[in-house]
Design brief:
alpha/beta, TIM Barrel, 6-stranded parallel sheet, 3-stranded parallel sheet, 13 helices, 9 strands, Metal_Hydrolase
Length: 291
């Protein structure tokens, strides 16, 4: 177990919450997770520094740890890095959600022929959240093969957690500009900007102010680990509080280099108030996902 795990339950109980909702957790096929962990262990180019994984356990134990924290609902963030991978991941994630109480059925996509078809099938089958990883996938959100995908997601109102900020390392299509162009074409999209858009925090707060469907997840933001490399600007705390109903707690569990409690306590250090914390850690996601 990691440092501070015993403090997680006290955190949400003191806020008067029934538990936590974590919109950014990773459960994947075993061999895919092993490759992800190997990449982190090697401090690959998208990581760039030592990144010890705090919760490197078998799937059943990871689920037990998450439930022990009081997490009432969570995701299985999956993401392809090449064509032909997304549909297979979606099949695994659908089965995982069916056998895992509390898991919001998660799906993904890649710019490839057939993407609109299999995304449509996932929507019809009950997918409740999608994951898009512009950085790892290395694709332009404006790829023509994704236009019908974005249109279907906007029409359905199903949220998409999208890693599009340039942290921890910039990619060819990361940053706020591609997302601004996407939202100009599909303004009703419910995008959840992963990691608060780190390090382009202010730009993604701008987009959240402009588009009511844009949310932000707190994944790794505000922690000591991230503040050293990409500190959240203190003068943006006012906007962060004002947009509190569209900020959602995310952890990146199990792939975090610190204890789960630290991610929660980092939110407390912002000093934005208990009402803000209650919304971020439970209420906002409960409303968005109908939990």
């Amino acid at each position: 177990m990691a440092d501070g795990d015993e403090r997680v339950g006290a955190f949400w109980r003191e806020l008067g919450l029934p538990g936590l909702i974590d919109v950014h957790t990773h459960f994947m096929p075993e061999r895919v997770m092993a490759k992800v962990w190997a990449y982190f262990d090697a401090a690959g180019p998208l990581v760039g520094r030592a990144w010890p994984i705090a919760y490197r356990f078998e799937e059943d134990e990871r689920l037990a740890v998450l439930r022990g924290f009081g997490v009432r609902a969570f995701t299985s963030m999956i993401y392809p890095h090449k064509p032909g991978m997304a549909q297979w991941l979606n099949g695994w994630a659908a089965d995982f959600a069916a056998r895992t109480p509390g898991c919001l059925r998660t799906a993904t996509f890649f710019p490839e022929d057939g993407a609109a078809r299999y995304v449509g099938a996932e929507l019809a089958g009950g997918a409740r959240v999608f994951k898009a990883h512009v950085q790892v996938g290395g694709y332009d959100p404006a790829d023509a093969r994704l236009e019908p995908v974005w249109g279907a997601l906007a029409e359905a109102g199903v949220p998409v957690v999208i890693h599009c900020g340039s942290g921890p390392a910039p990619g060819k299509h990361t940053g706020p500009d591609p997302i601004a162009r996407l939202l100009a074409r599909h303004p009703r999209l419910r995008l959840i900007i992963a990691h608060m858009g780190m390090p382009e925090y202010a730009d993604f707060l701008d987009l959240a102010q402009r588009y009511p469907g844009v949310h932000l997840d707190t994944t790794m933001a505000f922690t000591d680990f991230s503040e050293r490399a990409a500190p959240f600007p203190r003068d943006e705390r006012g906007r962060l509080k004002d947009l509190g109903e569209r900020v959602l707690f995310g952890s990146d569990f199990p792939n975090i280099p610190y204890g789960y409690a630290h991610a929660l306590e980092a939110l407390t250090r912002l000093e934005l108030g208990e009402e803000w914390l209650r919304g971020v850690c439970y209420g906002n996601a409960a409303r968005l996902f109908g939990v």
